[in-house]
Design a protein that fits this description.
Elements lengths: L7 H4 L16 E2 L4 H4 L7 E2 L2 E7 L11 H8 L4 E5 L7 H6 L7 E4 L4 H13 L3 E6 L6 H14 L2 E6 L12 E8 L2 E8 L9 E3 L40
Parallel strand pairs: 3-7, 3-8, 4-5, 4-6, 6-7
Antiparallel strand pairs: 1-2, 8-9, 9-10
């Protein structure tokens, strides 16, 4: 389509994008999968924003999908925080995938409100590169607050929607649905700042560089104050101030 020369400077502004294109994301971290990067605004996971990942089934490689980006963020001397994971993270597999366990904080054994509080504090903290939460959050006011926290902290935040949970994070600029398909992980882009993608992106996680060959989760619930877990009061950027 012909564009009038007078409009060219306006259309080149990073805050403006056409409906058929992918929006320009000023800050992102590569996913480690070229096919997925090509479909995401900015060519990767958005920093300073929430991403919602809805699972058709657990144990399909959903956490492995995020590991290359997490390792890259830790290389910038930033922390990774897991809030209320449903199972105990399997440390040997995470280390084999390139994660520095000294910069991994697991917040487990807390009530829902405390989990949301910890998630918000992690999102706001400049020391935190990525914060993941498996706690249900559907109140749009809470979700907007979390989005603001991610933007202020420059943190990549993920809200995980487990099977059967309603996915409704309307404030999240990126929403994906994950499902197994033909031995690969099918990533369907439900929402992005750009045109609709009709077909899912199929990723072969087993062939990804550094992909571990054993589970990342050991399928046991994380008990309160388990060894290797952190409560909000034991991490400096998750410290609740006395009221």
């Amino acid at each position: 389509m012909h564009v009038h020369p007078a409009l060219t400077p306006l259309l080149s502004h990073p805050a403006i994008w056409r409906g058929g294109d992918c929006a320009c994301e000023p800050a992102s971290v590569p996913t480690g999968f070229a096919e997925l990067d090509a479909a995401l605004p900015g060519g990767g996971w958005p920093r300073g924003a929430l991403t919602e990942l809805a699972l058709e089934r657990e144990g399909i490689g959903e956490l492995r999908l995020t590991l290359p980006a997490l390792a890259r963020l830790q290389a910038e001397s930033r922390y990774v925080v897991f809030v209320a994971p449903p199972y105990r993270p399997y440390a040997p597999a995470l280390a084999a995938a390139g994660l520095d366990l000294r910069r991994l904080v697991v917040v487990g054994g807390v009530a829902r409100d405390d989990a949301l509080w910890a998630f918000e504090q992690a999102l706001r903290a400049p020391e935190c590169g990525a914060a993941f939460a498996w706690t249900p959050a559907h109140d749009e006011r809470v979700l907007r607050r979390l989005q603001v926290a991610a933007r202020e902290g420059g943190t990549w935040g993920i809200l995980w929607r487990r099977p059967g949970q309603h996915a409704s994070a309307a404030g999240a600029p990126l929403r994906l649905r994950l499902a197994p398909e033909q031995g690969r992980l099918a990533v369907r882009v439900v929402k992005r700042r750009g045109a609709e993608i009709a077909r899912p992106i199929l990723l072969d996680l087993a062939r990804a560089p550094g992909a571990p060959l054993y589970p990342l989760l050991d399928a046991r619930p994380l008990p309160p104050h388990a060894p290797g877990a952190s409560s909000p009061r034991r991490t400096r950027f998750l410290h609740r101030k006395a009221s």
